[in-house]
Amino acid sequence: MSKMKNIIWPQVILFGDSITQFSFQLNGWGSEIANKLARKCDVVNRGLSGYNTRWAKVVLPRILPPTASNPPVAVTIFFGANDCSLEDKNPQQHVPCEEFTQNLKDMVKYLASAGVPNDKVIFITPPPLHEASWEKECILKGCSLNRLNSVTGQYAQACVQTAGQCGVDVLDLWSLMQKDGQDFTVYLADGLHLSVKGNQFVAEHLWRLLESRVADLPFILPYWGDVDAKNPENSLLSD
């Protein structure tokens, strides 16, 4: 009897900070992407609340080892909301913009060495920041406003420019959510993190970039109506 072959499930890895970590909550953008890809691949949440790119590039090889036998079909890199913290108000998370740019490049370079080419990587910029709402959150935590939307925009622009230099796609949330002067506060729950509408916005726009990368993935295992009821092994154990 021939040895049964394990099923290799492709993976999409979502790598980022709290906006990624929380994306598997009810109505989250990550759960929406996972739902679209059910029975085609695993969508893996590797969001790390509070992390910046300085820390992210250190842990990336632990999340995706260089010897991985099944490289992901796509990876999103969604950082910047913590990097852009004001140095004098939040030195723990702050990363200078120039270093932020280099960290993104380093992560793309590492992914390529781990079998994930640039055309499978998608950058996502931080969303815009609503300062009045976020200041209320800061005061509740006993600190003063530690981010500014204008500074967040500088990091978003740097992310877009770095994507062009690296040859990777980018979802520019900071610009899209403020396009034509629209009220971007509807996309935010607390001035920084995403609301239900914000999660829907990310899911919709990310899917446009992701869909072509996963379009050829087959449906894993037969549709139930196609299973040979008398001899299910013939249907379920064949390649």
Automatic annotation (TrEMBL):
<dbReference type="Pfam" id="PF00657">
    <property type="entry name" value="Lipase_GDSL"/>
</dbReference>
<protein>
    <recommendedName>
        <fullName>Isoamyl acetate-hydrolyzing esterase 1 homolog</fullName>
    </recommendedName>
</protein>
<keyword id="KW-0378">Hydrolase</keyword>
<dbReference type="GO" id="GO:0016788">
    <property type="term" value="F:hydrolase activity, acting on ester bonds"/>
</dbReference>
<dbReference type="InterPro" id="IPR045136">
    <property type="entry name" value="Iah1-like"/>
</dbReference>
<comment type="similarity">
    <text>Belongs to the 'GDSL' lipolytic enzyme family. IAH1 subfamily.</text>
</comment>
<dbReference type="InterPro" id="IPR036514">
    <property type="entry name" value="SGNH_hydro_sf"/>
</dbReference>
<dbReference type="InterPro" id="IPR001087">
    <property type="entry name" value="GDSL"/>
</dbReference>
<comment type="function">
    <text>Probable lipase.</text>
</comment>
